[in-house]
Amino acid sequence: MNSFQKIMHFLIHNSILFTVIIMCLVHVTLLVVFVLTGVQPLVQFNVMSLVVYVFSILLCKYGKILPVYVSVILEVTVYTIYSTHFIGLRCGTYCFLFAIVPIIIFFGCFIFKGAKRWIIVFLLAFNFLVFILLYVGYVEIEPVYALAPPIRLFLVIFSSFIMAFSTAFYNTIYIYSSELDVKNLELRNQKLSADAKEDVLTTLLNRRGFLPLIEPLMASGESEQFCIAFCDIDDFKRVNDSYGHEAGDEVLRHITRLMRKEMQGFDICRWGGEEIVILMKNCNMEIAREKLETLRKSIETIPTVFYNKQIFVTITIGLERYMDIYNTPEELIKVADSRMYYGKQHGKNILIFEDKDETGEE
Questions:
Q1: Separation of alpha carbons 120 and 111, rounded Å
Q2: Degrees (nearest 5) of the Cα angle 327, 295, 241?
Q3: Is the pLDDT of residue 190 over 80?
Q4: H-helix or E-strand spanning residue 337
Q5: Which residues are bridge partners to 198 per DSSP?
């Protein structure tokens, strides 16, 4: 990945934070201008705007995109009305209304899904209505503060530049991210074949590639030399419903990376959906339990970061060691699966390594 691609990846995944930082810099510039020109109401307003954006930076760190989105739209709209009243239309601050149009669309499409996207249309219509009312209402009205021509020219150029920059920036990252999605889809399709042994999304083994690894171990008769762990992400449907399927995919990739790090030397299979099976060769029950507990705690404490949003998930694990009572890999996996299911029914985010009766006793 070259430097340009790294920068684009960073901007795509941190676009809301980048937006807030740029808005801070814009208001710092405007604050300096109005301090120098003595427009006291706009000095006070820009100070309040900086407070709003500093608070928004903190919200970004906690993944609270919606309140930041609303704050940006409200602040820019109110500032445009307020500044037009005090320094007039000729200073061009109405250009800020057009500067947030790409922001409304870009982040709105990420936040609002399905029928809720009428909110984006409403915000765009409201934005245009504000511009019309300002233009009609103030075209013949003299401003409260008459700025010198060089200052007016600077403000016009500055606000026009922000409008052009916003349009170019958000269109660029939208086009790049779309092309990236297409390339990723093409690469995935290239990997698909009738005898594919890897899962496309996570690059883990699939069932076709995983089961043949267990059969020779069972045939060798080396009982107690390997274990099977059946893992399931807790409440995964909630992740998809709350954040979208793209976020769900990123959660799966993130957990895959953690598993590969913690389970080095073991074979990992995406069994289906959010279910993952681990073949722990040359591993007795005690060692398997220690390693899986470390994995469980790691997944619990390290969130998936998706567009500045931190998504915390947990996993429930069922564990069984191989014994000669099992004739097929499926029989062994089924026991680990049933223990995982018991964990799901009794609190989740837990490792179950022995059978329980209905009262929960061994």
A1: 10
A2: 95
A3: no
A4: helix 329-345
A5: 205
User: Rounded distance, CA 4 to CA 146, Å?
Assistant: 45
What is the per-residue burial (b if ≥16 Cβ within 10 Å, else e) of 198-213?
A: bbbebebbbbebbbee
The predicted structure's pLDDT at residue 179: 84
Residue 356's pLDDT band (cuts 50, 70, 90)? low
d(CA 256, CA 260): 6
In one-letter notation, the amino acid at residue 289 is R
Tell me which residue of 57, 62, 63 sits closest to 23, measured CA to CA. Answer: 57
CA–CA separation, 282 vs 149, rounded Å?
A: 81
The amino acid at residue 171 is N
How far apart CA 126 and CA 148 sit, in angstroms, is: 32
Q: What is the pLDDT of residue 194?
A: 41
Q: Quick check: 195 and 208 in contact, CB under 8 A?
A: yes
For residues 241 and 247, give the distance between their C-alpha atoms in angstroms, rounded to a whole number.
Answer: 10
What is the share, in percent, of the chain residues with pLDDT greater than 90?
70
Q: Please tell me the total number of residues recorded for the chain in this structure.
A: 362
Tell me the per-residue pLDDT of 281-322, one tens digit each, with 9 for 90 and over: 989 999 999 999 999 999 999 999 998 899 999 999 999 999
> Which residues make beta-bridge pairs with 304?
311
Residue-level pLDDT at 24: 95
